[in-house]
Known about the structure:
This protein has 2 domains: about 1-20 and about 90-220, HAD superfamily/HAD-like (Rossmann fold, 3-Layer(aba) Sandwich); about 25-85, DNA polymerase, domain 1 (Orthogonal Bundle), CATH 1.10.150. By secondary structure, the protein is α/β, with parallel strands linked by helices. Helix content is about 45%, strand content about 15%. The protein is built from 10 helices and 8 strands. Helix 6 (about 120-125) links the parallel strand 4 and strand 5 (about 135-140). The longest helix has 18 residues, at about 70-85.
Amino acid sequence: MADSLKKFNAVIFDLDGTLADTLGDIASAANHAFAQLGFPIREVADFRYLAGQGLRPLFVDALPDEAPAMIDQGVALFRKYYAVHNEDQSKPYDGIADLLDSLTEHQIKKAILSNKPDTPTQQVANTMFKAWDFDQVLGHREPNPLKPDPTSALAMASDLRTTPDRCMYVGDTMVDMQTAKRAGMYAVGVLWGFRDEAELREHGADAIVSTPCEIAELLGITG
C-alpha cells in the first residue's frame, strides 16, 4: 500500500485529539464557564464528544435548553479563560515530533486545520509546535463555515499549491473524516484521539492508524 500512497505531497492535520492531547484544557475552560453560569461541571471524558465541532456547538450540545444569549456568554467565558490556560495540561502526542521531523525531511507540506477558534489555534501552533515550520495553520474564523464543510480544506489545498487528491487529511473524529471525504482527500483516522475506531470507519476513513509512525509508513517515508 505504501508505494501507492507516495503520490501525496501534503498532510493536513486536525489539532485537538490529533497532534495534541488538549482535552484537559478544553474541559477546564468549559467547566470554568459552566461554573460561572451556574451549571454543573462535566467530567473530562464528556468532552471527547462535546469537543471537535467548534466552540459554539460545544455549548449548544452541553446546554441544549438555554437561550442563545446564555450560549454566547458561555462562549465568551471559555475564550477568556482558554486564552491564558490553553497549554496548562496540553502536550503533543507521543510520536508526533518524529512524524513532523520526517515530513520536514522529505519536504512533504504540512498544515493544521482546526475547528478551534483561530487565535488559540495559532497560539498552540506557535508555542507547542514552534520547532516545525507549518506551511499553513488555520482555526475557525467567522464567517467561514466549520468543518465538516470542505470549504477551508479546499482553500488550504489551493494555498499549498496542490490538489485535494494529493492531500492526506489526518484527524480523530467523524467531523474530520467527513471533511476529508467531502474535499476529495485521503482520510486517515487516528486511534489516540477523542473518538473510537467504529466512528472513524462509519464516516469514511480510508485508513486507521494506531501510532504516528504508521502515517509515515502510509506515505512511504520510513527507513
